[in-house]
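thread: overnight batch results

M.L. [08:02]
morning all. the overnight job finished for the chain we discussed friday. pasting input first so we're all looking at the same thing
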Amino acid sequence: MLTAEIAPICGRDQQPSPEEWLVDSSERTRRARYAVKKDSRHRARQGYAKHVATRRAKESLRALSCQLAASQPDQRRAYVERRFQELTALWESETGHISSLTDLASHPSYQSIIKLGWDVVPFLLRDLRENSRFWFPALHAITRVRPFDPADFGNGKKMTTAWIQWGIKKGIV
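M.L. [08:03]
and the structure it wrote out:
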């Protein structure tokens, strides 16, 4: 059985001598190691190329969005407001029955609102003032600020007042 396995490797029908077997074996091992190294280098190059391409694409998108925002601020504001209204309506309809604050804040629509970034902060503050919706985590996630006293944490009225005053002070509201 061993001869049947070795013979095709050596390219002949008879069993190789021990010296031939060692030479063939070491050569096969060397070739296999080289192939693995070559393959891993190839994969590494491919991975780096993908990384570079992705980074360049993100940079060009970022530059394009900055140009768009700078050249058409009114259109950007209108888009953000419309998107905010759509996502808010969807979030409210799908979470109206939920009392868990964690579930409210982890809803995909809520997370999409957060991803709109600083442009959505005026709309969040206006909605917070008018409808008293639960926008505290979204405001903190975007601004990285908590303008209220830590002792007031959990007191919705004081937190709302603090956020509105912060927005007025910053000229956002």
